[in-house]
Amino acid sequence: IEAAVARMREANPHLSEKLARHLTSYGMNRNPDGSLVWKFDPFVRGWPPYGFDVRQAEEILNRITCPGLLFHGGESWASDPEKDGRAQLLKNCQFINVPRAGHWLHHDQLDVFLEATKAFLVNNTGSLLHLVKN
Fold first, then answer.
1. Is residue 49 part of a domain?
2. DSSP letter for each residue of 28-43
3. Is there a single domain that holds both residue 128 and residue 62?
């Protein structure tokens, strides 16, 4: 398990030792022989039955009109949605770039994530309830 925790922290350097150990222990299964294996392997993924290109994704994002909240970890491996234009495709979306956070920003900056999410939900409850009722 120690090697797996080290691998988790190497891939996610913002994680504390305690959180990395927790995520690792719940992210693994024990084989009948006692060895451990990850529950999720990013290299083993199903592919969609048809192609999906950037133009199609942009068309879909442009159709979304409900309030949205989009986070980006400032140190994430993923591109910045504000800089690459994806954030502008969402017409009614608040964008939050979280410094000192990687791709798992909800683990890296939990307090920032929770505070922003709570504020978003409080400020948009009426519009979100309207969407649910219709």
1. no
2. EEE-TTS-EEES--TT
3. yes
Residues whose CB is less than 8 angstroms from the CB of residue 105 and which lie 6 or more positions away in sequence, other chains included? 71, 72, 73, 76, 98, 112, 113
Confidence at residue 81, expressed as pLDDT on a 0 to 100 scale: 93
d(CA 7, CA 47): 26
Per-residue pLDDT tens over the stretch 15-61: 999 999 999 999 999 999 999 998 987 777 677 777 778 888 899 99
- Determine the structural domain holding residue 74 and report its residue range: 54-133
Give me 51's structure tokens: 């192609």
Share of the chain above pLDDT 90, in %: 69
Same domain, 58 and 30: no
Domain count, the chain: 2
Q: Let me know the angle formed at the C-alpha of 55 by 49 and 56, rounded to the nearest 5 degrees.
A: 45
